[in-house]
Amino acid sequence: MLTASVNNTEPVTVDFTATGPTLNNAPFRWDMVRLSDRTFHILHENRSYNAELLELDRATKTVSLNINGHVHTVQVKDRFDQLLEQLGMSNAASAKVGDLKAPMPGLIVGISVQPGDTVAKGDSLLILEAMKMENNLKASAGGTVKTIRIAKGDRVEKGQVLIEFV
């Protein structure tokens, strides 16, 4: 089951069953013919619609359509997006690199970046010594270092923010 919101309106539920698609649990009858890669002709309740796909953003699950000369933006959420939203984690998938937090208590023995540095996923940020082992903490995604909240020799606690990103 999907939810779809057109032009930021109240979402509707869309499901695809063995008997055909449903819209808010009611059967949705339509006839659609593909005219080209981006254009379609649709018949619904004795009305004719010309639809053109303007843009498809797979990352944000957003579709822009031109239907009979009017542009509509459709935001689609699948069951996984809905579950993340219910758990309060709806922005988790779209998040950029977040603040680097200490994964465990330890001692900062080295810092590899400075404020303003641009880092890529996998770049070394700092070395945290914990339980007599040196742990190389790396960037989880690309970003720009905003602030370094620790210094070499500082003791840190689990969950403490070490580096902030823009």
Structure in words:
The chain has one helix and 17 strands. By secondary structure, the chain is mainly β. It folds into two domains: 2-86, no CATH class; 100-165, Beta Barrel (OB fold (Dihydrolipoamide Acetyltransferase, E2P)), CATH 2.40.50.100. It comes from Spirosoma oryzae. Residues 84-166 form the Lipoyl-binding domain. Keywords: Biotin. This is Biotin carboxyl carrier protein.
Topology:
Elements: E1 2-6, E2 12-17, E3 20-23, E4 26-27, E5 31-34, E6 39-44, E7 47-57, E8 62-67, E9 70-77, H1 79-86, E10 100-101, E11 106-111, E12 118-119, E13 124-130, E14 133-138, E15 143-148, E16 155-156, E17 161-165
Protein name: Biotin carboxyl carrier protein
Organism: Spirosoma oryzae
Pfam family, one: Biotin_lipoyl
Backbone shape: elongated
Count of domains:
2
Kindly provide the radius of gyration, computed on alpha-carbon positions and rounded to a whole number of angstroms: 24 Å
Structural class: mainly beta
| Helix proportion | under 10%
Pfam family, one: Biotin_lipoyl
Protein name: Biotin carboxyl carrier protein
InterPro entries: Biotin_BS, Biotin_Carboxyl_Carrier/Decarb, Biotin_lipoyl, Single_hybrid_motif
Keywords: Biotin
